[in-house]
Amino acid sequence: xxxxxxxxxxxxxxxxxxxxxxxxxxxxxxxxxxxxxxxxxxxxxxxxxxxxxxxxxxxxxxxxxxxxxxxxxxxxxxxxxxxxxxxxxxxxxxxxxxxxxxxxxxxxxxxxxxxxxxxxxxxxxxxxxxxxxxxxxxxxxxxxxxxxxxxxxxxxxxxxxxxxxxxxxxxxxxxxxxxxxxxxxxxxxxxxxxxxxxxxxxxxxxxxxxxxxxxxxxxxxxxxxxxxxxxxxxxxxxxxxxxxxxxxxxxxxxxxxxxxxxxxxxxxxxxxxxxxxxxxxxxxxxxxxxxxxxxxxxxxxxxxxxxxxxxxxxxxxxxxxxxxxxxxxxxxxxxxxxxxxxxxxxxxxxxxxxxxxxxxxxxxxxxxxxxxxxxxxxxxxxxxxxxxxxxxxxxxxxxxxxxxxxxxxxxxxxxxxxxxxxxxxxxxxxxxxxxxxxxxxxxxxxxxxxxxxxxxxxxxxxxxxxxxxxxxxxxxxxxxxxxxxxxxxxxxxxxxxxxxxxxxxxxxxxx
Length: 511
Known about the structure:
By secondary structure, the chain is α/β, with parallel strands linked by helices. It is built from 14 helices and 16 strands. Among the domains are: 3-63, Orthogonal Bundle (Arc Repressor Mutant, subunit A); 139-324 and 388-397, Vaccinia Virus protein VP39 (Rossmann fold), CATH 3.40.50.150; 416-509, CATH 2.40.50.140.
């Protein structure tokens, strides 16, 4: 179809969208040359984001509804079959039906071990084709789930538009994109732009073929710094900017994040995700605080600043946790795959030589013996199974909104910034619940914060009662009021303990 015919299709669609559903079988009769309805449908699909159209199940098109998206995040237990099969097909195409076994399985396992080690050492990761496929095997399922849970707060608060424009920075192999596609309803319109300079973009392209008819993806194979400098054919503003497991890999994460805030619509949100490990989770908090000081950004969730003009200085190793996913077959197959003689010898001798040398690709740097070698877990050990859905996240906005619209009464509540004045006293205070139970047996222990704290604060339950049960049942990010809580200093942890006992009342306050 030539450009003039395409123009006629667009003009007819603009006219009809205000009148009735657009039928390609009707429009084609009004286009010069009477092109086939399938050609008209293809043009409408390409232009749907610009025209604000969704494609219905019957093949007709209609305007996407205005207003917030109506979607609910439910428990996620597995990766959808379509994504599962597409990834396995890509592995078979690259390595053959026996991809988990022999040299190909060894290469993939080595790639996964290597990038896990590099993450823990804060070392850069180069994503060649093998590494990208290894990343998809190991990381795609948890990120598919994590982005849906993280967006749940925005959806519940009506802050995700039905016509959603997404910029995904460092999109990797597309886990978050696939999660968004699974989350949004059929009558929503998603205009998705991925920025991914590495060879992971090829895997992302392949997996994005599984998305629905009203999910319109574009992958930009260039660094975010270059993307920000020039017009790449993307919208000027986005409703959602995603930074999933990427900020820790940038040379200037604060500068990039500040620039991305400028790409938001007036009611848009930046969602930054990071692994739940200590280094990256704490780094995420440091980045958000720096950007908050340098821009007009507001911390929407989860670490809401309850006291006006106050910002936290605590370490805040804070992350959210959800039920594990079912183990995908491709992870199990790689974990149990048949080892080569060299790989088997490594397991038997306790030395890792899967790359032909002792590179020290340890999952835990402290496990090495100083020579760069450590025992290799045997086949079927679960080393290549990753179904833990736990992540640190940050939601930033520019409109001043926060998930918890509560301002404490200074005449009643003590800010955590002043907790040194109240050691051994019983006080009233407020805080956001920022962890699951951190105790490994013994008294339940939870990280809490009010956005003013200089060091970490932990609520520890020494005597549970009906009056304080809300502490244990509250969700991550919920606001809690503590009445008559005992303040103690924990010298070992260099933190304050808020001791919740039989005299303490803890009440969850709806946001």
